[in-house]
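chain and backbone:
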Amino acid sequence: MGFVKEFKEFAIKGNVIDLAVGVIIGGAFGKIVTSLVNDLIMPPISLLIGDKGFTNFYVPLNDKVRAFVATNPNASLEDAKKAGPVFAWGNFATEVINFFILAFIIFLMVKAINRMKRKEEAAPSVPPAPSKEQVLLTEIRDLLKAK
């Protein structure tokens, strides 16, 4: 029974919930960046370097794949992979671009959050108002000094 209670305390802590929300948002954000790269950035690059599509650039690694590519010059990466091993450098380059865009955006977000934290820390803090007891004791002290 102690294990269930301990797990419940762990799961309800704010840090765990914040982490879970961050992972979920990060996963969704990763999909947005992937779409940005695959659907908006890579198509113009592919037009500049060929109709094949940037992610479909690969190097065949055996004779079977080379023969397949020779008979199917516009074969996609997936088709070539079915024929045998390939060095898929275009797909790797796309994933590297995804990573750098995602890392840059996260950097900007952390930078903005740190700037907001510094502003909060720099703001002058107003001392809390004295409690009723402190006010009463101050009045008593002042009355005793006056006599």
